[in-house]
């Protein structure tokens, strides 16, 4: 019996245990330590003992595989992983440093039971593209996935959220190019889930409170004592990003005639706009990843490793 443990070491730290291609157990550390959206502490703080791993103290895994968003310093990831490996028994280990969006896509694919699908991944920028001048955040991806392979068609990346070299902050303009066979849009504008976060902050909310902004948008044209400016911002965030997602789906359909669509990435916790997308495209078959935020990448990376997808 092949035993694989996938571990997400970003926020929403999570653990996915597979036996022979089947997800047997899934846990998020914050359910145990009661620290919402828990992210492993970065060095040089004292090493952290994971409550979840106590459940597997007698298990020897064939492999433990790790995934995260791409941090600026690889040494941080290494220290976190080394700490975890002291608390788990395994024959092999692997860390997938890049392709964060692929693991979102694979998670949705595993739960969907589609034979083939196009995964649309939208988040605040968990994946990066590097070159000699700057690091840019990938915030939207179009990915074709079936049981044999994974193919990226398109990525949209921005340097609005973070970058390595401040003097190059404005070097990314509105550019469309091709990199490694993938259509790539580079911009210095806010896009994807980060656009929603900008509206969130403008409305006076904190990161991780996107659900509150989504909920408030429904009250724009109803009698309420809520601040009118906040209502306007919330409504604009919903409508503008909905139109962006419609365009992204239309772009996806230009690459493939596949009618099965998977929605993943943290943006697609937005159930109101997910429903509107389903209504807007009645001829498409939609599946929303049940763990679209970073927690789900533990499922994605374990299944990716076990099935040995080609991409």
Short précis:
This protein is an alpha/beta fold and 311 residues long.
CATH class of the largest domain: Alpha Beta
Uncertain spans: 163-168
What gross morphology would you assign? globular
Our estimate of the beta-strand percent is: 25-35%
Give the CATH topology of the largest domain: Nucleotidyltransferase, domain 5
For the sheet with most strands, the description reads: 7 strands, mixed
Mean pLDDT: 90
Radius of gyration: 20 Å
Secondary-structure element sequence? EEEHEEHEEHEEEEEHHHEHEH
CATH superfamily of the largest domain: ATPase, nucleotide binding domain
The CATH architecture designation of the largest domain is: 2-Layer Sandwich
Number of helices: 8
- Summing up helix and strand content along with how strands pair, one would put the structural category as alpha/beta
Note down, in words, how this protein is organized.
This protein has 311 residues and is of the alpha/beta class. The chain has 2 domains: 3-97, Nucleotidyltransferase, domain 5, CATH 3.30.420; 115-290, Nucleotidyltransferase, domain 5, CATH 3.30.420.40. Helix content is 31%, strand content 28%. The protein contains 8 helices and 14 strands. The strands form 3 sheets. Strands 11-12-10-9-8-13-14 form a 7-stranded mixed sheet, sandwiched between helices. A 5-stranded mixed sheet has the order 3-2-1-5-7. A hairpin with a 5-residue loop joins strand 1 (3-8) and strand 2. The radius of gyration is 20 Å and the shape is globular. The chain starts with a strand and ends with a helix. Residues 163-168 have low confidence and may be disordered.
